[in-house]
Amino acid sequence: MSLLSSTQGTPERVWSAIRIVEAEGGRIGRDDLWTWLNPAFVTDGVARQIAGEAERQVIGAASSLEFLKLEAPDYVLTADPLADYEAYADEVHDRLCRTSPDHPDHVMLETFAWLGLKAESSGTDWAAAGDFADRVEADLGNAQTGDARRFNDTKQTAWRRWMGFLGLGVQLPVRLSFHPDVTRRIAIELRRAGLPTGVALPIDAVLQALSQRMPYLDRGTLRARVAAATSIKDDPKRLSHLLSAALRELHDEGRVVLDRRGDATGYVDLAPDPFHEVKSVLTIKILAGSDD
């Protein structure tokens, strides 16, 4: 099982499974968990038939993320208690960042790294297009797997859902509804990195911290591996479209301050945007509560 093959294992359903097992003291019987996830009920005097596929996929997704482990006949919680839904999202993000290339869920952020690279030449409007899955498979797929595609139309829906949950995209009320946007996750990771607030920090230091926490973005190891594997050009001297847009948005919202003083050295160019005054950055000041 993986997140993309467990299409009914949505983030909120996985969270429900985790909380159920946690409420039971960290261990619950298989049948009990299935019943909690999909209670039986009667309609017009007839008991509804429970196929069990949805519950199986929820548990499959939770197991793939290593939140649950089967110790027959029980499921056991393998994670420390999480404070709330936001902490759960942060934990899922961290676990996906740590996946090895042979892990079935590695394709989640690998695809996002690929999308960020492609956005440099193709923009992001096509991220919800009908041929998106085919483009991903063409660049990241393994020809030796035959019909067992790593990414397809069905998996694309689940991928979008998880990206939005992680703060890496938004759903828009239009036909091409998915838009990659790292603003929310950037704000969260700036706080979680423990960087000083209210003082001007060298942009390189902040980028280094972000690259370690978000390896699918600029200067990150995952982005570099995807660029090398797909021969997509990656210019480290200029910030990517996605990261530039996020920093500008945080700046406009008053959550960070981007600054470049005169001709000082050490500045970094942002991706071109003729409609924004910030073209390059020397320092960044993180304001308290920037991820609120």
Explain this structure to me?
The protein is of the alpha+beta class and 292 residues long. The protein contains eleven helices and twelve strands. It has helices at residues 11-23, 30-37, 53-64, 85-97, 106-122, 132-140, 153-165, 183-192, 203-213, 221-230, 241-252, and strands at 27-29, 42-43, 46-47, 68-71, 74-77, 169-171, 178-180, 200-202, 256-259, 268-269, 280-281, 283-286. The strands form five sheets. A three-stranded antiparallel beta sheet has the order 1-5-4. The radius of gyration is 21 Å and the shape is globular.
Which SSEs are present, and which pair or pack?
Blueprint: H1 11-23, E1 27-29, H2 30-37, E2 42-43, E3 46-47, H3 53-64, E4 68-71, E5 74-77, H4 85-97, H5 106-122, H6 132-140, H7 153-165, E6 169-171, E7 178-180, H8 183-192, E8 200-202, H9 203-213, H10 221-230, H11 241-252, E9 256-259, E10 268-269, E11 280-281, E12 283-286
Antiparallel strand pairs: 1-5, 2-3, 4-5, 6-7, 8-12, 9-12, 10-11
